[in-house]
Amino acid sequence: MRGAWDSVICPRLLPAPPRRTSEAPDRAAGYSVGPRRLAHVRGAAHDDPVDGEQGRTSGGLVRRGFLGAAAAAGAGAAGVAATGCDSAGRDVHRARPSRRADAARRAEEAERARPGSADWRIRSTGPPDAIEGYTDRVSVLPDEEVGLYVSTTAPAFRVSAYRIGWYGGAQARLVWRSGRVDGRKQGAPLFLDATRTVRADWDRSLRIRARNWPEGAYLLRLDASNGHQRYVPLIVRSRQARGRTLLMHAPATWQAYNTWGGYSLYQGRDGAYGSRSLAVSFDRPYAKSGAEKFLVYERALVVLAERLGLPLAYTTGMDVHLRPAVLKGASAALSLGHDEYWTPQQRRYVTRARDDGTNLAFLGANTCFRRIRLEPGPGGAPARTVVCYKTAYRDDPYLVNHRDLATTDFRQSPAPDPESSLTGVLYEGYPTDAPYVVLDSGHWLFAGTGVDDGDSFDHLVGVEYDRVTPGVPTPAPLRIIAHSPLVCRGRHSHSDTAYYTVASGAGVFASGTMRWVEALMAGTHENGRDHGMDARTRAFVTRTTENLLRAFAAGPAGRDKPRPADNVRAVYGTGARAGPGSGAGAAERAAR
């Protein structure tokens, strides 16, 4: 979210119109699919795996009755869908699986068939210092070690590792639990004046080895002996994603918004933008539950993708920066619900993957908006600090010798490169709350949802939004499939859902709203963040996302799905844009 101090105020538009392929703005050809149901610690700790089997169910509904029937179903009514599409075919993205891949696939299926652990949720966070912790790595490979740093007012604590997935509706499985660990209250954090950076710099409490932990997204739950709990998120990442859908989690964005110790990239201890951190450290806990951004903007998509039985791989945006080979041969790469902070390297590698045939999905808004730099932490540990000076980028000493690496918005000088050239949409503003309006109900992404042109879904657009913006670098042809009127800070605009393809055959989808992943939980009051969205909205977003994930898992979508017919001019007309200095807050931006 944004406050009045931030550098983006609705709306933000850019000059320099791109060349756009001239296409007839005809309605894209519809695509029909068959109906489906909405469907180790050294010393004091021990391993405690959970095994078992569970069956799967399937069913069907006619297209026109889908939304109504799904809305009437309870939050746990969705059945496990059929397993993912066969990847055999004619190119690198459809190569016949190797024996190793077959073995990995069997292990993946066995993991998903195990019973879940319904008690994974936190029952009481207690006071902020009751128990809290952080790891010395945002991700590990299976069998690697990670250090855990814990502070608690309780005399002892335990750690439970839960892998997030479907698991018959339990949505997590207990993979490992520690023994009793002595607890203590750790010292006050270190404050680095030059960048107003807070580091806990605590003593390590224990080491954990992810022995026999399947790849995936994990929550380490800290259970204090006084009854209070906190999460510490951890990704057990994949070495490679060939033939799989790659989920890119966003710890850089989690950390940017983290206010632990009183500072984030948005505010200082006094709540003011001017006293904000210029760099934030991973060597500190996350505030609140310890995993708020993951729970709200990412977890529901992990659960859905696992329920669909698709071949999945896991990584983080920071790991893409450090280890881009994970993208090679991936069927798809998914950016989740709030993925704002990217390094130029991450962006370059993801763009290259697209151009090599990897489908991309941007399931939030405000994606790839901030240009960041990753720096080492204590002892030279790589990528433990996120640097983003934003409007104060001229004060960054690094800029003296690296003029093209200013840590400000990607679209801003001295090296403007708007995110729209990759995502197809441009971030415009905050805050808004508006209905999502379908423009092209015949598009294959909406197959089986039962929607018609003009159908709307209350509150689905928000709290930040993107739109297709004529006059900025945008791929073509590009199809707008939802066009939602809204008001942001008194200014009328639109949010757009867009789809385009490139020569490699890769398809690229952008939802245009930050609530897309949240909507997968709509009507359930999960995390208390449903914004008034209902079960009907959940059914629509779930089915559309299922269509997207299944198609993208099958290989380059542009080879099997209709080529998008460009309708940008038909929707927006020619020259329909504000000048670069116009719009709400232009004077305030210029003053900075």
TrEMBL record:
Limits of the N,N-dimethylformamidase beta subunit-like C-terminal domain: 158-522
Signal peptide from the UniProt entry: none
Region (Disordered): 14-33, 88-128, 572-592
UniProt biased composition (Basic and acidic residues): 88-114
Annotated Pfam families: DMFA2_C (PF20254)
Protein name per its UniProtKB record: N,N-dimethylformamidase beta subunit-like C-terminal domain-containing protein
The species this protein was found in: Streptomyces mordarskii
